[in-house]
Amino acid sequence: MKPVPISEKMDLKAYLEEKRTRINGALDRFVPKDQEYPPDLHRAMRYSLFAGGKRLRPVLTMAGCEAAGGDPEAALVPACAMEMIHTYSLIHDDLPAMDDDDLRRGMATNHKVFGEALAILAGDGLLTLAFGIVSEPAASALTERIRLQIVAELARAAGCRGMVGGQSVDILSEHAPEIDVPTLEYIHTHKTGALIRGAVRIGALAAGAGEETMTALTHYGDRVGLAFQIADDVLDVIGTEKELGKQVGHDRKRGKKTYPGLYGVAESRDRARELATNAVAAIGNLGSGAEPLRAIAHYVVERVN
Ligand code: GRG
After folding, report:
1. How far is Cα 206 from Cα 39, in angstroms, rounded to an integer?
2. Which of 18-27, 42-51, 178-187 has the lowest mean pLDDT?
3. Single pTM value for the model
């Protein structure tokens, strides 16, 4: 299957840059400065948060809001919450008790710089702050009802029926002699997919989306989430440490079960591209406000980092 051009109708690069600037500025305001007591904790939180992530999840939240007919700025606060939760998950995932990684976002992992105890606490701090900023009435103009819906959606996406559930099955399946396809799909759709699906849905909630729009965006999020994870597995096989800012070939060394491990690189790429195409089809009835989401679906599978 040929790669689909990332975007024919819009300048995705400029869009991503603009949204990343908004998100980074807001994150900077929400997270205590290095000097605020206790400074070591806040330094550790900011170290990983500002280490140069792609900001895919918060961009999806803002683009999801736009696709549902809202002003993307209305989703800025929940978008920041998504990035805080994602960053917490990366800090904890890199710990010796989990994936035991030395490099993340092109820098030494949090526990390598601050020690394990502070890395755990930095993750805890980011996770808790995420719920704090969304529920805080003064932080955004979102109504109380919508803020509550978003809190529930965040908990669903990040918790034991979402990302934490997927991570636990992933860890417990390492070095298992075999893994069946439903278990692999559970890991993918939960460990990574749940947060991506949640990111899009939270954007739609911020826009006050109706049921039909929410269903379309949920299908989009599910497909993009799985496509993202398959693309990530492929990059772990064919990418370079310089491009990815993390160690490569790690999945195989850890005995992780992956799509390329099961189906090979070429078939995995085809599957990811097919999922991106299906994601775009799922939001076919949404208007031009959904153009960024359409472009992002293809970007997710054609990216090199
Ligand atoms: C510790 C509860 C808990 C969960 C961890 C996120 C996660 C779950 C594990 C990370 C393992 C991993 C590398 C999964 C592959 C998909 C993934 C989440 C990649 C990193 O996301 P990117 O590429 O990272 O969006 P940046 O740094 O750009 O934000």
Report:
1. 33
2. 178-187
3. 0.94
